[in-house]
Structures are given as C-alpha cells and as structure tokens.
C-alpha cells in the first residue's frame, strides 16, 4: 500500500528489499514474493530498485533472481542498491546487469564500481563528507580516507554512528537520537569516532 501510494504521488523510484522475516528461503520463493508485490502494484509498477543488504535482512539477493524478475516484468526493475559489502558480488552484478542503475552502499567499493560502470551510491557517509563521496561517485576517484573511515564506522552500529557524525558536522545534537531497538552511541564512542575522523581528514587525499 505504501509503495502504491508513493508511485501514485509521482515518486520516481522505490527501494525494495527481500522479506526478512524468513531465512534460508529459496530463489523460487523470493521470485514469488517479488512477483506478488509487482502484481499488486499493477500498472503503477516501475522504477523499482532492488535492495541487497544481507547484513540486515539475512537474505541475499541472487543475481539469477534479478535476471528472472527483469524477464518476467520488463521495465519494472530500474536498478539495484548493493550494500552487501562483497566486492566479488558487486563485480558480478555489474557484469550481469550493468545496463541497470547500480548503486553501491559500501563506500569502500564505490570508486571501483563507478570505474566499472556503476552509477553511484546511496551513501550514509555522504551526509557528512559530501564532496568526497561526490568525487568518488562522479569521477571514480579513490579516497583512502573515506575507505578507512568506513572501518571506523563499522566498529559501531552503523546508523547511530553516521548520526554521530552528522550531529558533529551540524552542531545539532538532536541528530544523536535513534529509535528503539537502536541505541545511541556512548560519549566514549563518539569521541573515538571524532578523533578518527580528524586524523584521517586532516590531510588531502593522496
């Protein structure tokens, strides 16, 4: 219902992850689920970005499934957001479906994916290192500082960690708030993130 309403209102794209409430589901089962969603959208179905984020859903998005959905529902799948963090998967995705919009969620792989035909990113770090991520997304330019800071973020739950950095950039501590079941990062963690950021971004990229 939310997707239908959004598309009726003129939203260009919807981000659609596989269902996360069952694990170890088959490719056929996933095909059936996505097919049911597309069928429910009917003539509104368009601009779907399939979302591969197995660290959250525990359900990876098989490359063959993407091909099956494209064949069965021409023009519905516009692209894939790949937040799997597995470069071998990302590379295979670009080879198999490079005519789609491929957006990388793991900034460590962003520049490399752009050089191989990727379209850019949906990036948490773009909220606080905007120009650096833009250079990676537009020019395929490596930035070791960004790639190193991803490792610092991954020491914590990612969403609260990103919000720590946004709060620091904006000076607005309301950004530190998160909704349950997430918890805000403690003061020591915030200080460690800030120190790592200052150390890495004190210099221009090599």
Structural commentary:
With 206 residues, this protein is α/β, with parallel strands linked by helices. It has two domains: 121 residues, Aldolase class I (TIM Barrel), CATH 3.20.20; 64 residues. The model has no long low-confidence stretch (mean pLDDT 96).
In short:
The protein is α/β, with parallel strands linked by helices and 206 residues long.
Helices and strands, with pairings:
Blueprint: H1 2-8, E1 14-16, H2 27-41, E2 48-52, H3 54-57, H4 63-72, E3 77-82, H5 87-97, E4 101-104, H6 110-115, E5 120-121, H7 130-139, H8 144-153, H9 158-170, H10 187-201
Parallel strand pairs: 1-2, 2-3, 3-4, 4-5
Helix pairs in contact: 2-4, 8-10
End-to-end CA span:
48 Å
- Seen as an oligomer or otherwise, the chain set is single chain
Largest sheet: 5 strands, parallel
* CATH classification, class level of the largest domain: Alpha Beta
Mean pLDDT: 96
Query: Which residue ranges are poorly predicted, with pLDDT under 50 across at least 5 consecutive positions?
Result: none
CATH architecture label of the largest domain: Alpha-Beta Barrel
Share of residues in strands: 5-15%
**Order of helix and strand elements from N to C terminus:** HEHEHHEHEHEHHHH
Tally of alpha and pi helices: 10
CATH superfamily of the largest domain: Aldolase class I
Sum up the overall morphology in one term.
Answer: globular
Category from helices, strands and their pairing: alpha/beta
Count of individual domains: 2
